[in-house]
């Protein structure tokens, strides 16, 4: 699913109006109807409903929803925030339609106008500002947003929480702009980029995508480098398996992971690589890790390092493998660092670097210049910070990743909620799967094993990352159908990979 900057969404709307054709009023009606349907199905309509509407089209959406709720005799109070005399034509039309129903509408020009309104134990519908907002919300409107946030009521934001900019919110932070803290955000047609950053989840709450039927051609004509991974895209690129195939058909991964006391990292990555469909997996281990590997995963082939305890070498035949994973649990002893540098200068095959491999680079940034083209780095937030520094705003971090990936011709998987994939071309994908069950030791080892397996099977770098990240998260989603998120461990993610892949193939 393509994601658009807030200043381009209006172009998609305009193109839809042109191609369908449909009037802007009817498009607003359609969007509001779909939000109304969600509200009717998911909130307690016996409670008082307080609708906050601004003067723009976001306010127009909220006013239509208010009218529809009035038609089913819900108890509705509308607060119309007249912070400007420039009311959008569609908003003005729907305000008049609402007044014609004798719905109580409070015209609000200051905080004092609303100070007496009791918001507790109600349903609040937020339609004050849309995603096109570019100035922090302060003053009396900011006070109203604070009142909304302190109400302890269910808050449903239409399209985006009011006050949250579509992409970069750094100026919001600097100027203490007020932002609605929604319980639910009903985002229209596609998520807004800022909604997908973990740092903004306290405002977004639970994100729900409400389709409003924007024209496919209208979306195709507006360019974007940002995407939201969904099952349709993953299903379209996942490969089947021909009947007449053999283990050599599906690639051969070498996993260079684990030191004495950390062999679980290699076990998890190797199992994940096999479970994702790789034909052969060789695990490079120190001597003291042999028994662990052979007992834990008898399918694994072994490349036994000359060291008893750590990784110290790289096979002279490294390029006979289909793909290589380096890093989980290897530590950072000097001989391991030397072996890693040797790998960087000799490997001509797809390379995934995770965990301690990333930490070794962070200690010697010159190694960034040795990364082979299209190398995949898989940092979690702290590893990324050690590699590239700290960013005050998540959108600035994404822009940095895009520039860095294009400049160095590498790829980055930034792990976390809505894991972010940035490719060597600058394309940016946000994942749609996963839950807090993934916040467990070894989860990253599983992901790196999955992605390396897909590379070995012949997926291109972009597709290997997208499919790998999506099925990794989806396996955790399926797992929590059987257990609490608290109880998911890395091995569970591996155990549910088969069901996840089958669900894609069988759909």
| Helix/sheet category | alpha/beta
- Give the overall shape, derived from the CA principal axes: elongated
Characterize the main sheet: 11 strands, mixed
Amount of helix: 40-55%
CATH class of the largest domain: Alpha Beta
Low-confidence stretches: none
- CATH architectural group of the largest domain: 3-Layer(aba) Sandwich
Write down the CATH topology of the largest domain. UDP-N-acetylmuramoyl-L-alanine:D-glutamate ligase
Number of helices: 19
Number of strands: 18
Work out the strand percent: 5-15%
| Overall mean confidence score, pLDDT | 96
Cα Rg = 26 Å
Q: How many domain units?
A: 2
N-to-C span:
19 Å
The CATH superfamily title of the largest domain: Ribokinase
């Amino acid at each position: 699913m393509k994601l658009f900057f807030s200043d381009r969404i209006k172009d998609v709307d305009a193109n839809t109006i042109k191609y369908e054709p449909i009037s802007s009023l009817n498009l607003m009606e359609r969007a509001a109807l779909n939000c109304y349907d969600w509200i009717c199905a998911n909130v307690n309509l016996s409670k008082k409903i307080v609708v906050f509407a601004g003067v723009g089209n976001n306010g127009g959406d909220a006013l239509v929803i208010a009218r529809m709720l009035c038609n089913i005799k819900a108890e509705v109070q509308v607060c119309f925030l007249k912070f400007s005399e420039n009311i959008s034509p569609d908003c003005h039309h729907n305000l008049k339609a609402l007044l014609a129903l004798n719905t109580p509408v409070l015209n609000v020009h200051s905080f004092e106008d609303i100070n007496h309104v009791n918001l507790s134990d109600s349903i609040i519908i937020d339609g004050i500002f849309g995603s096109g907002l570019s100035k922090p919300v302060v003053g009396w409107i900011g006070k109203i947003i604070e009142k909304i946030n302190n109400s302890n009521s269910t808050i449903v934001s239409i399209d985006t929480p009011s006050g949250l900019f579509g992409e970069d919110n750094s100026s919001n932070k600097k100027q203490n702009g007020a932002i609605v803290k929604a319980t639910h955000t009903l985002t229209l047609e596609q998520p807004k980029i800022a909604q997908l950053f973990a740092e903004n989840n306290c405002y977004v709450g639970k994100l729900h995508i409400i389709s409003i039927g924007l024209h496919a051609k209208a979306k195709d004509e507006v360019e974007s480098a940002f995407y939201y991974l969904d099952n349709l895209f993953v299903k379209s690129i996942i490969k089947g398996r021909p009947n007449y195939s053999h283990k050599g058909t599906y690639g051969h991964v070498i996993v260079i992971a684990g030191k004495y006391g950390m062999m679980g990292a290699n076990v998890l990555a190797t199992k994940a690589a096999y479970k994702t469909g790789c034909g052969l997996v060789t695990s490079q281990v120190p001597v003291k890790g042999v028994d662990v590997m052979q007992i834990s995963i008898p399918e694994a082939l072994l490349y036994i390092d000359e060291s008893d305890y750590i990784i110290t070498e790289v096979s002279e035949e490294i390029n006979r493998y289909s793909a290589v994973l380096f890093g989980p649990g290897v530590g950072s002893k000097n001989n391991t660092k030397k072996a890693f540098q040797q790998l960087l200068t000799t490997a001509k095959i797809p390379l995934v670097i995770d965990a301690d491999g990333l930490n070794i680079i962070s200690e010697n940034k010159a190694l960034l210049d040795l990364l082979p083209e299209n190398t995949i780095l898989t940092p979690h937030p702290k590893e990324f910070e050690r590699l590239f520094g700290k960013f005050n705003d998540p959108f600035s971090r994404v822009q940095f990743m895009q520039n860095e990936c294009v400049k160095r011709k590498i790829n980055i998987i930034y792990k976390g909620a809505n894991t972010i994939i940035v490719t060597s071309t600058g394309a940016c994908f946000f994942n749609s799967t996963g839950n807090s069950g993934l916040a467990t030791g070894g989860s990253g080892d599983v992901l790196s094993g999955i992605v390396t397996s897909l590379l070995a099977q012949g997926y291109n770098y972009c597709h290997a990352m997208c499919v790998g990240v999506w099925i990794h998260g989806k396996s955790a989603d399926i797992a929590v159908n059987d257990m609490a998120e608290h109880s998911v461990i890395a091995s569970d993610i591996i155990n549910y990979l088969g069901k996840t892949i089958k669900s894609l193939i069988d759909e």
